[in-house]
Automatic annotation (TrEMBL):
Needed cofactors: Mg(2+)
Protein name: Farnesyl-diphosphate synthase
Key words, A-Z: Isoprene biosynthesis, Magnesium, Metal-binding, Transferase
Origin species: Pseudomonas delhiensis
InterPro entries referenced in this protein's UniProt entry, alphabetically: Isoprenoid_synthase_dom_sf, Polyprenyl_synt, Polyprenyl_synt_CS, Prenyl_diphosphate_synthase
Phylogenetic classification of the source organism: Bacteria, Pseudomonadati, Pseudomonadota, Gammaproteobacteria, Pseudomonadales
Amino acid sequence: MIAAYQARCQARVDAALETLFTPPREDLQRLYQAMRYSVVNGGKRVRPLLAYAACEALGGDPARADGAACAVELIHAYSLVHDDLPAMDDDALRRGQPTTHIAFDEACAILAGDGLQALAFEVLADARLNPQDAGTRLAMVSALARAAGSAGMVGGQAIDLEAVGRRIDQAALETMHRHKTGALIEASVRLGALASGHADAARLEALARYAGAVGLAFQVQDDILDVESDTATLGKTQGKDQAHDKPTYPALLGLDPAKAYALALRDQALAALEGFGDGAEPLRDLARYIVERRN
């Protein structure tokens, strides 16, 4: 069931994303090519899926979540472009293709990432692309800014870089990943819920618990795959975390306990949705998929 839903949502967000990369000037062709390359070059689209599923869980039309879905994927893509740079994780492969700084050059990759980040907020602020009332658009911009910035994803990346070669406990590891990975996943769910037009405080709180568990489960499973999978399956270099002496859940807990923890987080996410009806089934399927995926 999740495969059909995933294909439908991927097609929807990909079509919306394709409309965003027409350069306004001829001399910006290469920059826009790099931006497009960084976004449309594959990807599971987990964050847009979560935005659509949260919107539908509250009875919203998925068309109302197109702007949210595009915005979270643009932020995610920008973060990958910058993470892959030589000054950060220094990786040459992403989604089975050369990373943006390899396919273009380092300066162009930095600017492409900058452009994608700004474009995400432009999408959310534009009523043509994000057809909500002005107050809801402002709330969505604010939520994404917090999740993407120094209090969220960027802060988590800074903590990650500081942790290289150090031994940290599970609480510190979770703090890092709730920022680095979890914050944008939580924002994806929140933006989708706000886009529905039917969000209330109680259901937003339940969805926040769901997203917090799913966001952490996603990172735990990523760490497991870095140990168990291979480069061809992952589409990125396998074993990079161990090679860079980064703290991970398998290294801290052991591989089998890390797998058990991912399953426990999945169950926490499912429990958070107990008050939701059949409309939340895609969210439930996504929680299961996140800990069962192999790439």
